[in-house]
């Protein structure tokens, strides 16, 4: 999609500026050069082209323009997007690399905090293949070089009727530069005030343009250095006696064990202690501080090659192509691996390495002797678009395009323990203490006992491979059907055929469950979508009392998916220009999201998960107990007791998933009381039903047996079954199901004021977002979980207030900006009110940028982010650096400088 708004149409959206990503609502943006007959107006959120001075409002749209991007000094698109007040919740970035579910090192955007899967990302109005290292469910923003971006349009409204599935929370449309003439070169460098976290980028772009067409090609390279976590958070913190103290992992370097008599002990932690030493386990004394072996920011390298071209076949027909290749290399530092997490290690009382005289279970043993691990990723993305577009007469445009994207990747980890080999080193009938033994005997009870020979035998490097593939064909036509008294009726229609696929092949050790990691099965799947859409813009009234103009906007889409059948969505809105300076707008729409490849085909596996069976001991409960009645009716034998605290549970994908459904309402006011000032106020409400959620086995069982008559969806055979003879559960599923409902509402406020002072042209822009309500009901009959104003352990932060304000000024060769980002206070959902860190205070970040144009060809810019070196608040729920790294700035003050030259 492209956008070209007349200066008088600034009321259609809010001007927003970003610091590290100054977001600016466009008032006038250059349109790529095209044949004259193709010069039409279009905005993200509509596919209708109208030859007129402005287009009716389609909803709240934020635009981050090229100047704002350049001033930000950002080297990744996620930096531009994740600071928008409309962004919330979890999304992968370089300071939250261990949280992303789409492959370490993957960066994403999460509008409204509804999930990365519910934000549709487009590149020049077309879908982009998912990125990562196999069977992923969102676009990796690393693939799009920042230097190529002309602007980013963010539609904060449901748009499935316009763009198809996944546009539940909104649409991010990234527009690349076109029709450059000459050569441009830019270099950028920055680092923190502590001298770490260096970022550098080099961009070369060359282009030609003539009456016959245009060609632009670019090479972009960027890299970022690491920041050790201990430099920002020396240790993990926990509350003790009203104070915060260091509290590490219970996977100790000496080995934590449980003896047959129930005592918990820990073996030697230092070489100063004698061999065979052990003592009572103490968390304060023995736990492990992993922060020195983790990074707050992980290194990443990106290389981008791209070419964009057009060829004018006539004054009304044009060929176009887009070629883009991106390579990412990233890695994450990780603490030494631990044994006992995925498989218990039982050591007999008479084992030669056991000094206790009792049989024991080695619960956790960190392999400190092996040193730190490295997670690594290599991802290659190729995207090719080719098509033809043109015009029919004066009022109609058409286009046909083919789009192919393919992502392939490799990821893995060093120093992964082969659990089968660990068992071999403990089996004295197989191992040997002789030098150069094929299977050396190992001693895991005490730090320093593991020899280099044992480590070489049990440790390996795992490599997983995978990818994503997307092929599509689209065709559309747009124009004016006829004229009404109030203006022309706009119309757009089109079709799209799209095939999506993904696969992931884990390392063989992971597949068979021998690696010291989560067991995984291979993933492979695909589906085909066939869609048609139509859109109308009908001017109803014009120049009537209290109706300067009134326009009806409506759209419908019919989608047929090979796996899910057909689905229809709609959108309807009114754009009421009351007077030239006051506009009211409202949209209602339906949207949907199809399950992604991992949700559908994620390798199904089984594991013994900690689970409570409510029927254990049911016969001792009162006969009036619902649980007692249900267990008896289910045929569970009297006197039944659960054996142990785990149940074999099936996890992974669920091919029976259905699409999620959503209903969206937005309503807004745009008011310009005086010409330099524009105010916008937008209300939004989104309801998602049939939301995909994985429900824990304990929750499923408790819900079923606490429901009278077992009249709950979790009581059916697809959730669990029991052995009729023993009463034991022989099948339990924790696979994702369409069980949840989500509701979110809030208000967005925007302010734009242009003015002059002392000869300087200035603009003040503010966007503020207030989250009124966000509730999730994880399954039918469950109590709603209120995330409003909460910081969660796994979903991120849902603070009620976020804002971004920027003052920009320019005079002659000088220009600059000052940005203030505000994040409101929030409560830790997992903390008691009296706990330290139970409430995160409001925090404000300040940033400043200045630019000097030496001449028309050369300019230089300097910026400082987090000017006052604000520290992140302590958050009890989070273990990484003691804070929510997806919300707060962990790095502190940092600077960047950029120089650009044009020939």
Keywords:
single chain; 903 residues; mainly beta; Maltoporin, Chain A; 2 domains; 6-stranded antiparallel sheet; 48% strand; globular; disordered N terminus
Q: In summary, what is this structure?
A:
This protein is mainly β and 903 residues long. It is 7% helix and 48% strand. The protein is globular, with a radius of gyration of 30 Å.
Care to describe what's here?
A hairpin with a 5-residue loop joins strand 38 (790-791) and strand 39. The protein folds into 2 domains: 7-226 and 298-333 and 377-413 and 464-598 and 660-695 and 738-902, Maltoporin, Chain A (Beta Barrel), CATH 2.40.170.20; 605-651 and 696-733, no CATH class. It has 903 residues and is mainly beta. Residues 1-39 and 51-57 have low confidence and may be disordered. The strands form 8 sheets. It has a 22-stranded antiparallel β-barrel. Strands 12, 13, 14, 18, 19 and 20 form a 6-stranded antiparallel β-sheet that branches. Strands 1-4-5-2-3 form a 5-stranded mixed β-sheet. It has 10 helices and 46 strands.
């Amino acid at each position: 999609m492209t956008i070209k708004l007349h200066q008088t149409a600034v009321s259609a959206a809010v001007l927003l500026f970003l610091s590290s990503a100054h977001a600016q609502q466009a008032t006038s943006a250059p349109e790529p050069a095209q044949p004259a007959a193709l010069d039409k107006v279009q905005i993200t959120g509509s596919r209708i082209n109208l030859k007129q001075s402005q287009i009716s409002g389609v909803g709240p749209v934020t635009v981050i323009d090229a100047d704002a991007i350049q001033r930000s000094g950002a080297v990744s698109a996620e930096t531009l997007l994740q600071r928008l007040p409309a962004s919330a919740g979890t999304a992968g970035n370089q300071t939250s690399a261990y949280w992303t579910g789409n492959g370490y090192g993957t960066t994403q955007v999460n509008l409204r905090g509804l999930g990365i899967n519910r934000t549709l990302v487009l590149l020049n109005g077309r879908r982009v293949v998912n990125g990562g290292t196999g069977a992923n469910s969102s676009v990796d923003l690393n693939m799009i070089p920042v230097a190529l971006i002309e602007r980013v349009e963010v539609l904060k409204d449901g748009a499935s009727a316009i763009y198809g599935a996944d546009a539940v929370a909104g649409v991010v449309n990234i527009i690349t530069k076109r029709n450059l003439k000459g050569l441009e070169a830019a270099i950028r460098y920055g680092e923190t005030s502590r001298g770490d976290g260096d970022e550098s980028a080099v961009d070369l772009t060359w282009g030609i343009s003539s009456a016959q067409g245009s060609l632009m090609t670019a090479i972009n390279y960027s890299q970022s250095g690491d920041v050790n976590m201990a430099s920002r958070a020396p240790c993990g913190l926990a509350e003790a006696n009203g104070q915060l103290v260091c509290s590490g992992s219970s996977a100790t370097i000496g080995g934590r064990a449980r003896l047959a008599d129930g005592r918990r002990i820990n073996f030697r932690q230092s070489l100063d202690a004698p061999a065979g030493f052990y003592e009572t386990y103490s968390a304060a004394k023995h736990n492990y501080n992993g922060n020195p072996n983790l990074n707050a920011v992980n290194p990443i390298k990106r290389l981008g090659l791209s070419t964009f071209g057009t060829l004018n076949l006539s004054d009304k027909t044009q060929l176009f192509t887009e070629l883009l290749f991106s390579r990412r290399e990233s890695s994450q530092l990780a603490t030494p691996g631990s044994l006992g997490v995925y498989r218990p290690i039982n050591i007999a009382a008479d084992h030669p390495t056991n000094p206790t005289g009792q049989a024991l279970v080695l619960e956790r043993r960190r392999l400190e002797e092996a040193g730190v691990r490295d997670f690594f990723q290599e991802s290659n993305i190729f995207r090719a678009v080719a098509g033809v577009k043109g015009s029919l007469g004066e009022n109609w445009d058409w286009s046909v395009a083919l789009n192919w994207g393919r992502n392939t990747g490799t990821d893995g980890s060093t120093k992964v323990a082969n659990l089968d080999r660990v068992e071999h080193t403990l089996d004295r009938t197989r191992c040997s203490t002789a030098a150069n033994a094929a299977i050396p005997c190992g001693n895991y009870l005490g730090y320093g006992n593991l020899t280099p020979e044992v480590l070489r035998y049990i440790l390996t490097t795992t490599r997983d491979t995978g990818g994503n593939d997307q092929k599509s064909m689209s065709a559309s036509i747009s124009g004016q059907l006829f004229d009404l008294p109030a203006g022309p009726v706009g119309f757009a229609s089109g079709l799209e055929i799209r095939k999506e696929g993904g696969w992931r092949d884990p390392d063989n050790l992971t597949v068979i469950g021998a690696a010291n990691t989560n067991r995984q099965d291979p993933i492979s799947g695909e589906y085909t979508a066939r869609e048609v859409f139509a859109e109308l813009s009908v001017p109803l009234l014009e120049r009537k009392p209290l109706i300067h103009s009134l326009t009806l906007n409506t759209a419908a889409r019919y989608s047929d998916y090979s796996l899910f059948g057909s689905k229809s969505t709609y959108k309807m809105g009114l754009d009421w220009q009351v007077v030239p300076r006051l506009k009211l707008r409202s949209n209602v729409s339906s949207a949907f999201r199809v399950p992604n490849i991992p949700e559908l085909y994620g390798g199904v596996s089984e594991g013994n998960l900690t689970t409570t069976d409510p029927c254990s001991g049911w016969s001792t409960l009162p006969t009036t107990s619902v649980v007692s009645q249900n267990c008896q009716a289910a045929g569970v034998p009297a006197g039944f007791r659960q054996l142990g605290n785990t149940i074999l549970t099936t996890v992974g994908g669920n091919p029976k998933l259905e699409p999620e459904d959503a209903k969206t309402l937005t309503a807004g006011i745009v008011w310009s009381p005086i010409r330099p000032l524009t105010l916008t106020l937008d209300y939004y409400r989104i309801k998602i039903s049939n939301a995909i959620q994985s429900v824990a086995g304990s929750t499923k069982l408790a819900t079923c047996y606490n429901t009278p008559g077992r009249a709950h969806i979790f009581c059916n055979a697809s959730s669990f079954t029991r052995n009729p003879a023993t009463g034991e559960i022989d099948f339990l599923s924790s696979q994702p199901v369409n069980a949840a409902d989500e509701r979110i509402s809030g208000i967005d406020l925007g302010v734009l004021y242009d003015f002059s002072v002392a000869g300087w042209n200035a603009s003040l822009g503010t966007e503020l977002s207030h989250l009124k309500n966000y509730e999730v009901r994880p399954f039918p009959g469950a109590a709603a979980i209120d995330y409003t104003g909460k910081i969660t352990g796994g979903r991120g932060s849902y603070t009620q207030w976020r804002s971004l304000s920027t003052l920009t000024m320019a005079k002659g060769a000088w220009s600059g900006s000052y940005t203030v980002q505000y994040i409101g206070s929030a409560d830790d959902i997992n903390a008691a009110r009296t706990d330290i860190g139970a409430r995160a205070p409001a925090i404000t970040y300040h940033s400043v940028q200045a630019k000097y144009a030496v001449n028309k060809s050369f300019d230089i810019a300097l910026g400082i982010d987090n000017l006052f070196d604000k520290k992140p608040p302590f958050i009890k729920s989070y273990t990484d650096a003691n804070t929510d790294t997806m919300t707060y700035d962990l790095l502190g003050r940092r600077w960047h400088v950029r120089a650009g030259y044009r020939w």
